[in-house]
Specification:
The protein is mostly beta strands. A hairpin with a 5-residue loop joins strand 1 and strand 2.
Length: about 650
């Protein structure tokens, strides 16, 4: 926390206006739905644009300074942000790194996408892990933990398109492993364990026939979904628990005893009407010790052609899964920093449900009813989705339909649920517009520090220059260090960043040049050993067969060690480039004209791609990254002879 002290906001002058008055001001300025029991259907979403005309910026900060002048977000040229923000890149299939509080985008990490700049999706290694697939949809980015806080080792992220989990190494900020999750469609919520780098739990959002091999095509009552455990160290699928309902968001506790999944379709419906029909759905609580014991004892089934042990936990509560009834179509589940409370957001109910984790043991033992684990259910607004924390006992819930963030106090909510006459709602602020995820600095750790909150708004409408039918999303930064929330920055972003985590900068320590520890280096070393080549020093053209050529080539600014490569048309050509430069920020790369080959080779790095030599002719290959005054001259000729 000391890392951000120099950035302590001076804050606005205290207002005479009480918080209640301020809330009233905001209510009068716009539609206020809180006490309404009407639950809007999905169609209502499109009707929410009228907020724009209410001059929301003015009504939400009646006494605050203008955002541009707010001292706390300004990072002067040459100064560094105090937090890393790790953003999911949504349908781009990538991860983005932002500096917080400046909200400057620092980097994109290609994960499930093909990236023309780095060559991810086109280099030999990335093609292998991606299996030829270039579509990805990342929603949830979470870092590995030790003892309840980030340990700076890995980033985990889901892919909803193909049902995958990827891991990024933080030391070099590159994708390290991608795992296909068996029997899973729409892998959505994921969460790593927080006591150590143990399991990463992954939810299937879609129910499917299991196995989905064509034997059941017409009977949805037999569909099921999987809660899957992947070992965060080995990236192996350890076990799966099969449940009847679909699963949305995921969370873990701080002790390593439980994982959680919201289930919005307890009806088992396949149409919108069917999925929305029940008043109550569930929070699934998975008992990890009981599951592991059953796996160890072989009380599992095999499904389809995989070796993964599966526990069939469909139907009633059991030692494996407890179903805590919560209203209605719940979405987010977020554990508070004390580790005591899991907050489930109602989505189609204006409430959040607070689950006391300490009561779960009694519920699993049948001493209390599952519903008795709910200790508060505050009304927070219409369409609550996700909740973040400030480490001071307060929760911040994103309210999609109302386009607000509601700040509420957990202890007061519990008192109110017990009958006391207290209002747990502390503050509300307009956001622009239709907020999805929300996260606060260190909110998903024991070290939640209550400085910054980001609200990831799905629509920006009028907040930025019009750039056509697809407008940016709006990632808004809110100062939560005081009693009142202050909106301090609008951050346009591309392609739906569903979720983000904000991590103290002192916890993240990437290298400046490649350390050659990632899994892909074993591949290059294996090839070099086969060919008797010293990867770091030697350059060599080797004909491997009648139709295949392998090239080892080093680079050092501004030269490739080989400037002429002669092959025959139709040859399969593999070029392995090793960058001998050990200079920070000095990247080279390789582009082969007209052959769809382009990849980066960072300082002290190796990378490779394989392609088929085209029609006879001369093709320049060149370094695509500006590396030297003679960068444009850093090139050579691929000479393709007729066969
Ligand atoms: Cu709420 Cu995919 Cu986390 Cu989007 S999910 S908002
Ligand atoms: Cu090397 Cu440009």
């Amino acid at each position: 926390m000391s890392a951000s002290n120099e950035n302590e906001p001076e804050g606005p002058p205290p207002s005479d206006e009480s918080v209640d008055d301020a809330i009233e001001t905001r209510r009068s300025g716009r539609r206020f739905f809180l006490k309404s029991t009407t639950v809007l259907g999905a169609a209502a979403i499109v009707g929410c644009g009228d907020d724009a005309s209410s001059g929301a910026g003015a009504t939400t900060t009646p006494s605050g300074p203008t955002p541009a002048a707010h001292p706390s977000t300004h990072i002067a040229p040459g100064e560094l942000d105090t937090y890393y923000g790790f953003w999911s890149g949504g349908q781009s299939g990538e991860i983005r790194i932002l500096g917080v509080p400046s909200m400057r985008e620092l980097k994109r990490i290609a994960v499930f996408n093909r990236d023309s700049a780095t060559g991810h999706g086109q280099t030999d290694w990335s093609k292998q892990v991606l299996g030829g697939r270039g579509a990805g949809d990342t929603h949830h980015v979470h870092l590995s933990y030790t003892d309840g806080t980030y340990d700076g080792r890995y980033i985990f992220v889901n892919d909803k398109v193909h049902g995958r989990l990827a891991r990024v190494r933080i030391d070099v900020m590159e994708t390290d492993a991608i795992v296909d999750i068996p029997h899973s469609q729409g892998t959505h919520g994921i969460f790593p364990q927080r006591h150590r780098t143990g399991l990463v739990l992954c939810n299937s959002e879609f129910r499917t026939p299991i196995p989905n091999d064509g034997t059941n095509l017409t009977d949805p009552s037999q569909y099921a979904a999987m809660h899957t455990a992947i070992d965060g160290e080995t990236m192996e699928v350890k076990w799966q628990v099969m449940v009847e309902g679909n699963m949305d968001l995921c969370a873990t506790d701080y002790q390593g005893k439980y994982s959680f999944a919201t289930c919005y379709n307890s009806e088992g419906g396949v149409t919108l009407e069917q999925m929305m029909s029940a008043e109550r759905d569930h929070l699934y609580v998975f008992n990890l010790a009981n599951i592991q014991r059953a796996v160890d004892e072989g009380r599992t089934i095999r499904v389809g052609r995989t070796d993964v042990p599966v526990i069939d936990a469909r139907g009633d509560n059991s030692e494996f899964v407890l179903r805590v009834p919560v209203p209605k179509s719940p979405h987010g589940v977020n554990m508070d920093p004390t580790g005591r409370y899991a907050v489930v957001s109602g989505k189609l109910s204006p409430t959040c449900s607070v689950i006391d984790v300490e009561k779960l043991e009694d519920a699993f033992a049948g001493r209390i009813q599952p519903r008795d684990c709910v200790v508060a259910e505050p009304e927070v607004g219409l369409g609550p989705l996700h909740t973040a924390y400030d480490g001071r006992g307060n929760a911040y819930t994103s309210i999609f339909l109302d386009s607000i963030v509601t700040k509420w106090n957990i202890a007061k909510a519990i008192e109110a649920y017990g009958g006391a006459d207290v209002d747990p709602i502390l503050d509300r602020i307009d956001v622009h517009y239709q907020i999805g995820h929300i996260n606060a600095s260190m909110s998903e750790t024991r070290e939640a520090d209550g400085k910054w909150l980001v609200g990831l708004c799905k629509f920006s409408k009028d907040r930025f220059l019009n750039v056509g039918p697809l407008k940016p999303e709006n990632d808004q930064l809110i100062d939560i260090s005081g009693d009142r929330m202050e909106l301090v920055h609008d951050g346009p972003t591309y392609s739906e960043p569903h979720d983000a985590v904000i991590v103290r900068a002192d916890l993240i320590h990437p290298t400046s040049i490649q350390n050659r520890e990632a899994a892909r280096f074993r591949l290059y070393e294996q090839w070099a050993q086969e060919d008797g080549v010293d990867l770091m020093r030697e350059s060599k053209i080797i004909r491997k067969g009648p139709r295949s050529v392998r090239v080892y080539m080093t680079s050092r600014a501004p030269n490739f060690a080989i400037t002429e490569i002669t092959v025959k048309t139709g040859d399969e050509v593999q070029i392995i480039v090793t960058n001998q430069d050990q200079v920070e920020d000095l990247s080279h790369g390789l582009t082969v004209s007209k052959h769809d080959v382009q990849f980066i080779v960072n300082a002290n790095d190796t990378n490779s791609a394989t392609f088929t030599a085209g029609a006879p002719g001369v093709y320049w290959y060149y370094c695509p990254w500006f590396c030297h005054a003679m960068h444009l001259e850093m090139r050579g000729r691929l000479i393709v002879e007729p066969r």
